[in-house]
Amino acid sequence: MSDMSPAPAAATAKPVKLSWYRRLYLRVEALASTKHAVAAMLVVAFVDGSFFPVPPFALLVPMVLAQPQKWVRYAVLGTVASLFGGFFGYWLGTLINAGAVSFLEIDLNMRVQRFGIDSTLGELLGQNFWALALLCSVLPTPFKVVAIGSGMVAVPLDRFLLAAVIGRTVRFFLVAGVMRFAGPTARKWLRV
Could you list the residue ranges that cross the membrane (predicted)? Predict the structure, then answer.
């Protein structure tokens, strides 16, 4: 027999280089197995709601899988932290609005009179953006975009908060509930 057998595929394969976002996601997910998991989820949910794209569900899913009896607690805590982050993101949006409106000399009081619409630009954005905020709070979209965008277009704070409370509660309870009742098999088809 000759010693010319082919090398195993694993030995010749190059290591896969992960993007910075994927590495960060995996680090956040690894926090779920530490004693600081709840605190980490609260911080990540706040940050996700305000300015940085790290989904809290990377922590929530493994936490619920590890302790399914605490799924409601985790969903409530994640929702509350995300709402505080969303409020901070809304505030950032109002600051951006103030700077952009004055810097770019945008007139939000400009009247729009087309297609049967007679309103100001600011009124149109503020009155209708909350529905988008509600939808995007539930869907797997970055919540910080919704929060900052709501502040930028001057969505009334009460409408933004209503949309955020409904949307984030549905999202956190949906993810935690699916993990609680469907278990690990659901993880492969639930994209978080």
Answer: 37-59, 71-92, 129-148, 160-182
Condensed to tens digits (0 to 9), the pLDDT of residues 66-120 reads 889 999 999 999 999 999 999 999 999 888 888 766 666 665 556 656 666 556 6
159-162-114 Cα angle (round to 5):
30
Q: Which phi-psi region, left, alpha or beta, contains residue 116 (left: φ > 0; alpha: ψ -120 to 50)? A: left
Alpha-carbon gap, residue 60 to 168, rounded angstroms: 13
Angle at 185 between CA 73 and CA 141, to 5 degrees: 60
3-class secondary-structure state, position 119: strand
Where in the chain are the domains? 50-187
Q: Give the pLDDT confidence of 112-169 residue by residue, as tens digits.
A: 566 665 566 556 555 666 677 777 777 777 888 888 888 887 788 888 898 899 999 9
pTM of the model: 0.73
- What does the alpha-carbon distance between residue 163 and residue 138 come to, in Å, rounded to a whole number? 9
